[in-house]
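Re: that backbone. Tokens:
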């Protein structure tokens, strides 16, 4: 699919990886709306970068824990752009809690992580589905984590939310075929990001030492893979790991 003239929403576009994805989609020819929850300056910087690439942009404030707010944000994006071809479910929230500390992982934290990282992407896909189907060439790309493939990340809740997002990818690929492809990128550690800063130090050390390429994931490679999934016409239900080559995650 040629991305010129297409329209995307990248959730979490104020964040480190979301801004890279928004830029890459704009350079590939798409107009790009982004969402953010509190970091207005980061969102404005990403929207400015999309405009500097000659494309339309829009920054929408959205707490995707709230189903009503999700529907309102979808209406705003569709109202502004008239169509939406691509949804990138990139927004997520994490907090560093060692797996062994079950007492620290409270019901409230569990709900915040799961509502943001798994229910939100589902509700966004549900709300956008009629628009993505309209031109019979819709795209959803979910940003999960290697923590969804094997146990080890910022917390058990985060790992479980990303495992759910990976399987949601496959379920939606079946549900929305043949009009919409649904794929997933599962990054390992991306150093220098806000999320990486919340990881327990032992996880960071492990990610570095296990990568056979002796470097971890880069936001640029993740963004390039999102563009590749959006351009592809015959790929759906797939998960692509970007982690510097960790043998345990090579399937
Ligand atoms: N960084 C890594 O090492 C790494 C590794 C594997 C996977 N990932 C995945 O990559 C994606 C992007 O991560 P990142 O490193 O770019 O993280 P980040 O810089 O912390 O950005 C997270 C984004 O999600 C938004 N967000 C957080 N809570 C939200 C909520 N309740 N409703 C709506 N938006 C919310 C944030 O908005 P505000 O900026 O307004 O707060 C921000 O735009 C995530 O799905 C993450 O799980 C990251």
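Recovered sequence:
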């Amino acid at each position: 699919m040629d991305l010129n003239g297409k329209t995307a929403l990248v959730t979490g576009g104020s964040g480190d990886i979301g801004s890279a994805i928004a830029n890459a989609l704009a350079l590939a020819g798409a107009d790009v709306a982004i969402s953010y929850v509190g970091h207005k300056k980061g969102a404005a910087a990403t929207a400015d970068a999309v405009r500097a690439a000659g494309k339309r942009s829009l920054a929408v404030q959205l707490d995707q824990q709230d189903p009503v707010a999700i529907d309102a944000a979808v209406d705003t994006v569709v109202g502004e752009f008239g169509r939406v071809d691509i949804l990138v479910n990139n927004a997520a929230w994490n907090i560093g809690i060692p797996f062994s500390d079950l007492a620290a992982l409270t019901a409230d934290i569990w709900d915040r992580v799961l509502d943001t990282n798994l229910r939100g992407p589902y509700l966004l896909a549900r709300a956008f589905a009629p628009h993505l189907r309209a031109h019979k060439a819709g795209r959803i790309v979910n940003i999960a984590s290697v923590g969804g493939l094997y146990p080890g990340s910022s917390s058990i809740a985060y790992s479980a939310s990303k495992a759910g997002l990976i399987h949601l990818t496959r379920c939606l690929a079946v549900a929305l075929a043949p009009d919409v492809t649904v794929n997933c990128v599962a990054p390992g550690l991306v150093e220098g990001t806000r999320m990486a800063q919340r990881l327990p130090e032992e996880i960071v050390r492990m990610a570095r030492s296990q990568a056979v390429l002796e470097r971890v994931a880069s936001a640029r490679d993740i963004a390039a893979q999102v563009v590749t999934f959006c351009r592809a016409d015959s790929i759906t239900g797939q998960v692509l790991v970007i982690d510097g080559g960790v043998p345990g995650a090579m399937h």
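The chain has one domain: 7-249. The longest strand covers residues 180-187.
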